[in-house]
Amino acid sequence: MSSEPLRDRFDERGDTDAPSLRPLRIAFESADPAAVAAQPDVLAVIGFGRAALPDDPRCLRVGLEPVGAAPIEVWRGGGPVRTGQDGAVRWAGDGDYTFFSIQMPEDAEGGIGAAAEQVYRWLGEWLAQRPLHVLRLWNYFDAINEGDGDAERYRRFCTGRVAGMQGLFGGDYPAATVIGRQDGVRSLQVYGLAARRAGRPVENPRQLSAWRYPRDYGPTAPRFARAMRTPSGQLLISGTAAIVGHASRHRDDVTAQLDETLANLDSVCAAAGAATPLGDGSVLKVYVRRAEDAAQVSAGVQRHLADRGETLVLIGEVCRRELLVEIDGSHG
Question: Is CB count within 10 Å lower at the N or C end of the chain?
């Protein structure tokens, strides 16, 4: 694999003069992962649960168990795609978009906080060598709610992540998701999407911006935008749950939480100026804390989308213990 930087593949005239990017094509596919990864326009193949994937920088397995069928998530660019690995960062890029991933055992650094700090330092060092703008990030690790108070693993992750990203994004944070796996594997997985042009962060008027959360939620507020409008006009939506302002709503009521979550998704789409509501062109991952809620949540999402969008339901733990469902995805 080449470790040669992608700099020569990008237009370096600046965002204003560079031509618009084509939309990234994102879909759930029921196909052989190795065959898909071999196709020249494929940037990423993400499998879930026990999916068997080839050893390829385009491929990443996330240990979240899917409910029902287990398709792979496929990102397609304009091709041809080059791949490589620089230190801990594996990447695949087509000149417009770049998929990247880092995986790190927690015990290598002494816990989830230290691992998060190191992973984000590595990411910053890698990005410093490339004219790339991060649009979207995903963070997955085991047992997100383990520990009490500020010792909770999610709070420790947030503190480490912010320490590692010092100066990395300025005030324009990417869209992001943080979800807890339930696989007992103590490793941190961070992956994301970058582009040769910057996107436009979008906030949700129904929610307080995450970096302004009060001390009640931990010593370090999360740093992410509620969504990112890409240079092609697509909307990349962060992990979204039943939070209004900064407070969780509808404790122990999964139906009401889902309704509130969908209202937040509609709100962020409107704030971004999306031409259409959720449905056509929507590709959503639905994270459900309790397996017994999965069928009800899936049906509720499909009703809201009028059966037009693509959804994948995964068993995962949301960052706050009282929250039962979270949704992220792309639209447009």
Answer: N
d(CA 114, CA 275) in angstroms, rounded, equals 42
Mark 137-170 as b/e (b = at least 16 C-beta within 10 Å).
bbbbbbbbbeeeeeebbbbbbbbbbbbbbeebbe
**How many structural domains does the chain have?**
1
Catalytic residue among 106, 117, 260, 326: 326
Element (H, E) at 123: helix 112-127
3 state SS of 52: coil
- The pLDDT tens digits of the residues spanning 5-36 come to 333 332 333 344 445 789 999 999 999 999 99
274-294 average pLDDT score: 95
Of 161, 139, 159, the closest CA to residue 150 belongs to 159
Residue 264 inside a domain? The answer is no
Domain that holds residue 145: 7-234
Tokens of 272: 């971004």
Helix 112-127 and helix 153-164, axial crossing angle in degrees, nearest 10: 30
In one-letter notation, the amino acid at residue 25 is R
CATH assignment of the domain containing 78: 3.30.1330.40
Asked if 73 is an active-site residue, the reply is no
- Whole-model pTM: value is 0.93
**pLDDT digit string, tens, across residues 209-219:** 999 999 999 99
Q: Phi and psi for 160 in degrees, rounded to 5?
A: -65, -40
Place of tokens 């792309």: 330
Structure tokens, 158: 């947030």
CB 84 within 8 A of CB 2: yes
Percent over 70 (pLDDT), the chain: 94
Is 213 among the domain residues? Answer: yes
Within 10 Å of residue 136's Cβ, how many Cβ atoms? 25
Please report whether residue 312 resides in a domain.
Answer: no
